[in-house]
Amino acid sequence: MLKKLKQSSLIQNYSKIYPYVKPYWIRALIAVLITIPIGSMDAVIAWSLKPYMDVVMLEQQTTASQTMLIPVLIIVFSSLQSLFNYTATYMNTWVGQKIAQGVKIDLFDKLMHYNAGYFDKLNSGDVLFRFNNDVDMACSGLLANLKLFTTRVFSSISLIAVLFYNSWQLALVAVVVLAGALYPLTTVRRKIKSVMDKTIFSGARVMTHYNETFSGNRIVTSYNLYDYQNERFKETLRSVFKLGMKMVQRTGMMSPMMHFIVSLGIAAVIWLGSYLIVTHQITPGNFVSFITALIMLYNPIKSIGNNFNSVQMALMAMERVFGLLEEVPVITNKPNAKKLGKIKKSIDYKDVCFEYVSNKPILKNINLSIKCGETIAFVGNSGGGKTTLVNLLPRFYDIKSGSISIDGQDIRDLELNSLRDKIAIVFQDNFLFSGTIRENILLGRTDVSEKQLNEAIKCACLEEFISSLEKGLDTEIGERGVLLSGGQKQRIAIARAFIKDAPIVILDEATSALDNKSEAVVQQAIDNLMKDRTVFIIAHRLSTVRNADKIVVVNYGEIVEIGTHEELLAKDNSIYGSLYKTQIK
């Protein structure tokens, strides 16, 4: 049963990991082959004690040089074994690190291609644990297990051969006891599976606490949340502690139980061995060699329970890792997806319905047509679906029913990259990467000339700010742009959009978090960006959308009004007119 358990898990996982091992298969093979002499040399020491006891100790028929031969051979073999062990450990670590790198690269690529809905359901701790920690646990654990497993296999085979060489009767007793000692391992996976899943969840929550404290340090300080955050952290640690103790309760008796069974086996062998010596069926040398081989075989067994727990955890981590790799993102290209060319006519929403949670509609039968080059603004109540409606265009999410088309082509039939290349977005809270201002504007593009970059900076109203900096564009801005003001962040995001030069621009509350002075500067940059483009504006400040070609009022997932600023103000009982008058007052 133990053999089947190990084979089914190990073979399945090692077959999946093979593509990552393949580039380094020579080193991996050497690491495995070296374990053969490592394990086999255990038997040499045990076997050599028989002639030493029978000839040297009992019969005393050897010379001094012959007496020294066996101890010297033992030292030589032990030294070789240590050298091989070091080489195997080095090779395993090297290959393990390379495999982990390969898996992490693929997982990172997978992570970047998940749709927005995936991130809505996870916190940062989950991502760190599932995409990083699990890989380390799986790769290091399984490779260490492979080394341990192959070493133990060859060691056990050679030691069992020594047992049978010395006495088949004693060997049968030893093998039966060995099987009994290993039997409890068959229940390990079942016992730790549910606890392990909960431990992963709690460990992810610990990571989340650290991330939240890092990102929200100013909120913690300004609201004096030290005690509150400490209590939340302590509660999570208490949960981790309880799960750790539960793991010990379920598996902690395994090693003591194996130790007891092994002790019974040794006791039985000594009793039977004494009888066989007295009846001259074996020699004292046979017995000493047998006991040495038995102890060398049994000793690892007594502590294998703890090691086996780690092995099972590594196997489960590997299953989670490959579960992630085998997941297919919800939003992907169709097999025959087309590239989106130049946009000439219009963007059309037809009977569009959408929901984040099943049977809780966010958008209901949205019908809307935006001509190429138009500026359209979305206003309405908070949570009414304005941002969702715009987020469907670059396919952050896919609609439940209906269609969104560009020049008559359903966006689900278009290549994702070509679709998103045509859209530039300026969010309310734009994410900046750690690095320089230049790196955050270019975002990895190497085909932008210095002239184009300077033009983007000028159009984004960043010239004065950058010229005031000692290092200019090469100024470090800190993680998430912590060293910049809100207006400066927004203008860098607008400069990005100029560099992208996309025909469609989405402005999602781009000025709502700014003071009046910053808003005026950013608004000028936005006006520059909007020229000769199709523009979607989401705004709470209605003063910023007066000049839109079309204003769409979205309330509770439905379009309730469409028109220009003047048309909507002139309309009787206009929702827009009511909102506008309230804001003016």
Write the layout of secondary structure elements.
Blueprint: H1 2-21, H2 25-59, H3 64-112, H4 116-120, H5 124-166, H6 168-182, H7 188-215, H8 217-222, H9 226-251, H10 254-278, H11 284-326, E1 346-357, E2 360-371, E3 375-379, H12 386-391, E4 401-406, E5 409-410, H13 416-421, E6 423-426, H14 437-442, H15 450-459, H16 463-467, H17 486-500, E7 504-508, H18 516-530, E8 534-538, E9 550-555, E10 558-563, H19 565-570, H20 575-584
What would the average pLDDT be, to the nearest integer? Answer: 78
For the biggest β-sheet, the strand order reads 6-7-8-3-9-10
Query: Structural class per helix/strand content?
Result: alpha/beta
Count of DSSP H/I helices: 20
How much of the residues is beta strand, in percent? 5-15%
What does this structure look like?
There is one protein chain. With 585 residues, the protein is of the alpha/beta class. It has helices at 2-21, 25-59, 64-112, 116-120, 124-166, 168-182, 188-215, 217-222, 226-251, 254-278, 284-326, 386-391, 416-421, 437-442, 450-459, 463-467, 486-500, 516-530, 565-570, 575-584, and strands at 346-357, 360-371, 375-379, 401-406, 409-410, 423-426, 504-508, 534-538, 550-555, 558-563. The N and C termini lie far apart (79 Å). The model is unreliable at 1-7 (pLDDT under 50).
Structure summary:
Helix content is 64%, strand content 11%. It is of the alpha/beta class and 585 residues long.
What are the salient characteristics of this protein?
20 helices, 6-stranded mixed beta sheet, 4-stranded antiparallel beta sheet, 10 strands, disordered N terminus, alpha/beta, 585 residues
